[in-house]
Specification:
This protein is of the alpha/beta class. It has helices at 43-50, 73-80, 90-93, 100-110, 116-129, 146-158, 176-193, 204-210, 228-233, 238-246, 254-260, and strands at 3-14, 17-28, 32-36, 58-63, 66-67, 83-86, 164-168, 196-200, 213-218, 221-227, 294-297, 300-302. It has a domain at 3-82 and 162-233: Rossmann fold (3-Layer(aba) Sandwich). It is globular, with a radius of gyration of 20 Å. The structure holds adenosine-5'-triphosphate and magnesium ion (MG).
Length: 307
C-alpha cells in the first residue's frame, strides 16, 4: 500500500525549547496513526507542523510524493484541500453565527472550487455522510449541540475529499455519551472514503478504538511506536507502561501524582542522556546515554536503553 505521509527527522524548537525532536514515521492510505502522550509533549505542535501551519526547523514531510517543506505558500494552499484538520473544540473552531452551509463550504471557497449551486449540492451530500439532516444547511451553527457541531467540523474537513485528516483531541471536549458516535462516524468515513488519520488524544480508549498504529510521545520524541494491539499487550517503554498504568488508577490524585513524579528533577538542557531517566523505575546508566528509536520486532520500535 502507498504511503500517504512519510516524515523523516522532523525537528522544531520554540526558542531554546526543543518541542519536536527527530520525529520519523510513515502512514499508509486508509490507516490511522494515533498519537499518545501527556500534556505538553508536542502532539498539537506535531499535527500543525505536518500541515505547515507551523514551520519545521528541519526534516522532511512527504505527502503523496510531494515534499511539503519545499512547497511555496501557494502550493501549500493548493495542498490544503487534501490535508485537513479537526480541532478539539467545535464551540471555538466554528463561528456560531455563521450558517452551516457557509461553514462547510469554506474549504471549497478557499480553493475556488465550484459555483454556489454546485457547492450546495456538495454540502447536501456531505451532511448526509456525517449524519445530519439537509435542513441543517440553512441554520446557524450556534443552533446545534457540541456533538452536532463536531459533525459540522467533520463535514467541513471532508468536503474537499482529502487524503489525510489530522484530528487533534477531536472528542475530548464532548460528553462521553456523544464521543462514541463521533468515533464511529470517523471510522465509517475512513472505510468509505479511504481516509488516513493522525488521531491525537489523551484518551487511551479512544486511541485504541481508532488507531492501527500508536506512537507514544514524550518531551517531543517518539519513545515507542507499534501496531495498536501490540502497544497495549506488550508495551516496552517504561513511559508507555506508566501511561497504561495511569488509566487503571482512579481519576483523582493518583494520576496527577504519577504524571508529576520526579518532574522537579527534569534535566536541564543540554542533556545527553534519556529524558525519561529521572522518573524511570528501570534507569541505570541512562543519564549518560540517550536511547534512539530501535525496531525490536516488525513494526514495533522503542527508544529505551534496555532494548
Ligand atoms: N507557539 C508556541 N510558542 C512557544 N512554545 C510553544 C508554542 N506552541 C507550543 N509551545 C510549547 O511546546 C510544547 C508542546 O506543546 P503542544 O501544544 O504541542 O503539546 P500537546 O502535547 O499538544 O499538549 P496538550 O495535550 O495539552 O494539548 C509545550 O511546552 C508548549 O508550551
Ligand atoms: Mg494539544
Amino acid at each position: 500500500m502507498d504511503a500517504v505521509l512519510s516524515v523523516s527527522n522532523l525537528t522544531k524548537s520554540f526558542g531554546d525549547h526543543l518541542v519536536l525532536d527527530d520525529i520519523s514515521f510513515t502512514l499508509k492510505k486508509g490507516e490511522t496513526l494515533g498519537i499518545a502522550g501527556e500534556s505538553g509533549s508536542g502532539k498539537t505542535t506535531l499535527g500543525r507542523t505536518l500541515l505547515r501551519l507551523i514551520e519545521p526547523d528541519s526534516g522532511s514531510i512527504i505527502f503523496s510524493g510531494i515534499d511539503i517543506c519545499k512547497c511555496t505558500a501557494s502550493e501549500i494552499r493548493k495542498l490544503r484541500k487534501r490535508m485537513q484538520i479537526i480541532f478539539q473544540n467545535p464551540y471555538s473552531s466554528i463561528d456560531p453565527y455563521e450558517r452551516v452551509f457557509d461553514v462547510i463550504r469554506a474549504p471549497l471557497v478557499n480553493a475556488s472550487a465550484g459555483r454556489r449551486a454546485e457547492q450546495r449540492k456538495m454540502v447536501r451530500e456531505t451532511l448526509g455522510l456525517v449524519g445530519l439532516p439537509v435542513s441543517a444547511m440553512d441554520k446557524r451553527a450556534g443552533e446545534f449541540s457540541g456533538g452536532e457541531r463536531q459533525r459540522i467540523a467533520i463535514a467541513r474537513a471532508i468536503i474537499t475529499s482529502p487524503d489525510l485528516i489530522i484530528a487533534d483531541e477531536c472528542v475530548s471536549s464532548l460528553d462521553v455519551s456523544v464521543r462514541a458516535g463521533i468515533l464511529r462516524l470517523l471510522l465509517s468515513l475512513q472505510k468509505e472514503l479511504g481516509l488516513s488519520y493522525i488521531f491525537i488524544s489523551h484518551d487511551l480508549s479512544s486511541l485504541k478504538c481508532m488507531s492501527h498504529w500508536i506512537a507514544v510521545m514524550y518531551h517531543g520524541r517518539f519513545v515507542e511506536i507499534a501496531p495498536s494491539a501490540v502497544l497495549f499487550s506488550e508495551p516496552l517503554h517504561p513511559y508507555t507502561r506508566e501511561l497504561l498504568a495511569s488509566v487503571l488508577l482512579p481519576e483523582t490524585g493518583a494520576r496527577e501524582a504519577l504524571r508529576d513524579s520526579g518532574s522537579a528533577e527534569f534535566p536541564s538542557s543540554p542533556f545527553s542522556g534519556c529524558l525519561y531517566a529521572h522518573r524511570c523505575p528501570m534507569r541505570d546508566k541512562c543519564s549518560m546515554r540517550c536511547p534512539q528509536l530501535k525496531e525490536v520486532s516488525p513494526g514495533h520500535s522503542v527508544a529505551c536503553n534496555f532494548f
